[in-house]
């Protein structure tokens, strides 16, 4: 049995792929629907999140998306849900506001064209919304999506009369992503509080080495003998706002950093992270700002009194830096006394969440928004719909029929050429196994399965070596490399399917080369041994495989989107073929040729 170790490796990898695809865990049962969007107006907005599995509605099982849509239509009054195994109760008025889709029955992640997803319409709000503004907005949104890792997202500009809209199609985007990442305009501002002591309604504000008289009388403020309008004024190109006024104190907020001052948002582990804190998790990351912004910080913090923190023993100034995003406070941090009056270009953004996932998500969203910059216009969510697969619900059935017909044609042609079903039929079977293995590699949540496959392959190779079987280094490399690649995963979309077709097409050609070289030589009466013929065939096979991989590598590293997905799938498919499937097919041809040769010799002797 061990002399067929190449076939054993193929069967083990194939079994691992089948388990990777179909061995899916259902923590909440096989029945239910997956939440893809919750509208902000939904009573479940703060409780139900994208990705949760709803199994019951008003104590009735939910078997699929169609049944959900029928049951959830025109709900009123008290409504109960079971989502992720927990009970939720809401009061509903006509609409629950939860969009769902059928849960996946395999570990394969399908793209928007195959599975369907969410269509979101965003409306730019403001004056002077033109086509150029729309294009700039879409470019910024695409940058945010790429930085956040939302690869399955498409943006389209839409013009309706004098109004402009942005249509977003995604395989599944939660309302938190729409509201906190895509719809967020991203206007950043850092303000530093500047306390001013008053005596008899008068005081002095110090900026760097300069001092300016300030007086307060009721609601009126005068700075440098000039009245302040609407509580704001500009001094040395710094905008100040009166935040709090008492008889003895005046607290001003100075704009020190804006979004235009951000030059770099750091994401390295030394400058960004999430750490446990009392009652939850604190996230932080450092931003690098311009020299002009740092100089404003130095001017504002100069001359502010210091104090000692009794608990930490650290010395701080009597001020804080407040970080705002679209007018919403996201961080307020104390300022070390060592930084007062200094050009400070690396402020730190901090935040707190009760669990690590929320803290990590919040940090990534803020980093993404600050790195991409502010949107040219504010966006409002106009509508959200669930879209069906563009390729139709019968896509996979039709693809199966087409693949079966193609395999039948290949078998017939090869059979006519070589008059041997033992040579022709394995071509179709090997090609089918390559498709299954490639899908298994693309599957998610399969680390344990491919780990077991790797261990079994090592055991088979060790036993084969112990029994002094023929050493095939490339097949051995494949037995180790393919399970390691199996721990990867990617989305199965149209480019991936194109890559599979390209890989399988080259695979069929290579198997025909192996069969032709192995059988043609014997018919011509050459003195080459069968192993020599197979080696000569593999020289051609590896040359062709190297050519394909070489052509795809630039696309994988330089390409983006569709081209990159096609290149990655093609390269992995070719590796599966030449390192696993091709050695197994060569062994089949070798056994078939020897068997037919033995029958021929017996016939001659008789």
Helical/strand content category:
alpha+beta
Find the CATH topology of the largest domain.
Answer: Multidrug efflux transporter AcrB transmembrane fold
What is the general shape? elongated
Report the major sheet: 7 strands, antiparallel
Second rung of CATH, namely the architecture of the largest domain: Up-down Bundle
What percent strand? 25-35%
Distance between the termini: 31 Å
- Tally of distinct domains: 4
Give the helix tally.
14
Class of the largest domain, according to the CATH hierarchy? Mainly Alpha
Which stretches are poorly predicted, pLDDT < 50 over at least 5 residues?
A: 598-606
Proportion of residues in helical segments: 40-55%
- The count of β-strands is 25
* Gyration radius from CA atoms, angstroms: 33 Å
- Average pLDDT reading: 83
Explain what you see.
Helices cover 44% and strands 28% of the residues. The chain has 606 residues and is an alpha+beta fold. It has four domains: 2-23 and 394-605, Up-down Bundle (Multidrug efflux transporter AcrB transmembrane fold), CATH 1.20.1640; 33-102, Pdz3 Domain; 117-185 and 377-387, 2-Layer Sandwich (Alpha-Beta Plaits), CATH 3.30.70.3400; 188-372, no CATH class. Strands 10, 15, 16, 17, 21, 22 and 23 form a seven-stranded antiparallel sheet that branches. α4 (131-148) packs antiparallel against α7 (356-372). The longest helix has 44 residues, at 562-605. Mean pLDDT is 83; it is low at 598-606.
